[in-house]
Design brief:
Elements: E1 3-7, H1 13-26, H2 37-45, E2 58-64, E3 71-82, E4 87-97, H3 106-121, E5 126-128, H4 135-143, H5 159-166
Parallel strand pairs: 4-5
Antiparallel strand pairs: 1-2, 2-3, 3-4
Length: 170
Amino acid sequence: MDWQIRTVEPNDVAEVMAMIHELAIYEREPDAVKTTAADLHRDLFVGDATPHGSPAIYCDVAVSSDQPDQLLGMALWFLSFSTWEGTHGIYLEDLYVRPAARGEGIGKALIAGLARRCVAAGYARLEWSVLDWNASAIGFYRAIGAVGMDEWTVQRLTGPALATLGGSDR
């Protein structure tokens, strides 16, 4: 299989959305995706998606060299910031390679591209989360040198708790 990595383009949004849904099914949350193609397009391409006039998220895609409109995988990411390091990092929100394209080096190439961005920009970190039951992904991440942050747990405020706290003045 011949493929290449490139930055997402507006005409890729439908395929990226399809991969987001495929990932949700893989992660046993098939009904959890609330994002729409319009949301994704706005946050990837509209200059005023953030208060600073820049995109809120970024995405790299792997495409078939024979069929450039056929997406084989994606890495959807955004900039983070470390107050301890005093610099940005990249947070990888979603890494997904379609089953037929797995084992071709696409996942590693997508992460390596983000690592190159970090190095070139002087960023201190490339981080992501992985479900604890996803042994194949964890094995892949360990094989490329990633380490688990065992002392840290993810915390999330959502739904009614977010609305309650967000509606309070103190």
